[in-house]
Amino acid sequence: MKNKYLTLLTLISIPLFGQTYSAEEFISSGIEQHNNKAYDKAIADFSKVNISDPKYISAQYEIINSLLADRKLDEALKLSTQLFEEKKTFRSTLFISTSWNCFK
After folding, report:
1. What is the set of domains in the chain, with CATH numbers?
2. Among 19, 33, 81, 88, which residue's beta carbon has the most beta carbons within 10 A?
3. Per-residue model confidence as pLDDT tens digits over 11-37
């Protein structure tokens, strides 16, 4: 019985270890989709970039471009505003934490 569980877990986990993450690939694929006017597919590709990835802002910029090209102006404005606010919050948090470290 123990061997059956071990075999099952092994079979389930094999595909997980074979996957790799590449923000560049997602962005390149999204740009290609955008150029082919497949804006929804482009947005889906750009959205795969993880928020912790340094390329995240670039991917968000590309999403905004695809939204604008697809004439989804309200969504583009909403995302632009959200990114602006997040950047402001990030900068003020960074400033506060950096300033706080000066007093230690």
Report:
1. 22-102 (1.25.40)
2. 33
3. 454 444 455 778 899 999 999 999 999
